[in-house]
Write a structure and sequence with these properties.
Length: 307
């Protein structure tokens, strides 16, 4: 399937505005992270308790019901959970609670269930799941997540250097780090928590962005080989390579984005942040493969000629 017939877009002619735009995005991301004291970590990282509660009609357990979050919040505040994150989980009769509580959780939540049972006498209040993560474990998870992303970046550089050249590896790593920083920055600006699922999404973004970049790089290498014995315009060759893979990029990114968008709008609260991270990553990753990774090759060639 081809969306473009022999496109001749001059991507490299706007590489400097693209660098400026990306620089602004990275700067905004860094400033936001500094102002917020770093990423906003979820209970998975900072330590706390996650609980899933289900409400069922006593007379008809199969009857769908809707629980109002606003009414619940006052009850949780009575138990010292003013900052607890409460939202529907899977359906309108199930809620999830994330609270910064790591001690006496069994007693606290047992009393909480009793209180909810009294407040909702017509319903059975069922504790579906409860998980507690200590602060020490949370810090270890933060370190493990950072190491996972750094090691992924190192192996990307080594792989691209082996398959292509050093300048290709630098371009791929620059694009990958750009995608990760901008995506984390978007979460920071919107004050969305970083959870284990988001880290998984970031690693997925790294792989997705790398795959798209390698497709473009492979075409660039083939075109450079075919023109090696001829005088050629390097930026024009890069433009040609991107244009030749443009239809493939649009089809792949578009179909993936469509699926992830469906998850975002219809997958429920459980998948909302994860799918949002993927949406940001797909858009930013597609952009970076054309306007970050490839233009870096042009800058390397330009400096090589000057030297």
């Amino acid at each position: 399937m081809r969306f473009f017939k022999n496109p001749t877009y001059k991507f490299m002619s706007v590489r400097k505005p693209a660098f400026l735009f990306s620089g602004i995005l990275i700067l905004i991301s860094i400033i936001s992270l500094i102002l917020h004291g770093g990423p906003k970590y979820s209970v998975d990282f900072r330590g706390g308790t996650f609980m899933e509660i289900r409400f069922e009609d006593k007379e008809n357990p199969e009857k769908p019901i809707a629980i109002e979050i606003g009414r619940l919040r006052g009850i949780f505040e009575d138990f010292g959970m003013q900052n607890a994150e409460i939202k529907h989980y899977g359906s309108m009769q199930e809620i999830s609670v994330r609270a910064d509580i790591t001690e006496n959780t069994d007693v606290i939540f047992h009393n909480l269930i009793d209180r909810l049972s009294k407040e909702y006498p017509d319903y059975n209040v069922i504790e579906m799941r409860k998980e507690t993560v200590g602060p020490k474990v949370g810090k270890e998870l933060v370190g493990a997540a950072i190491l996972a992303i750094l090691w992924a970046t190192v192996f990307i550089l080594l792989y691209i250097m082996w398959r292509f050249e050093l300048r290709f590896g630098i371009g791929a790593v620059a694009a990958t780090m750009h995608d990760v920083i901008v995506t984390i920055g978007i979460f920071s600006v919107l004050n969305i928590e970083i959870s284990i699922a988001i880290v998984a999404a970031l690693l997925t973004i790294v792989g997705y962005s790398l795959n798209d970049t390698i497709v473009v790089f492979d075409r660039i290498r083939e075109n450079l080989k075919s023109l090696r014995r001829q005088a050629f315009d390097y930026p024009a060759t890069i433009n040609r390579s991107i244009n030749e893979t443009l239809s493939r990029t649009i089809v792949t990114s578009g179909t993936t984005l469509l699926v992830v968008a469906v998850l975002y709008f219809f997958g429920g609260e459980v998948l909302k942040d994860f799918s949002f991270a993927l949406i940001c990553g797909i858009i930013v990753g597609t952009y970076s493969s054309m306007f970050i990774a490839s233009p870096i090759l042009v800058e390397f060639e330009r400096r090589k000629k000057v030297a």
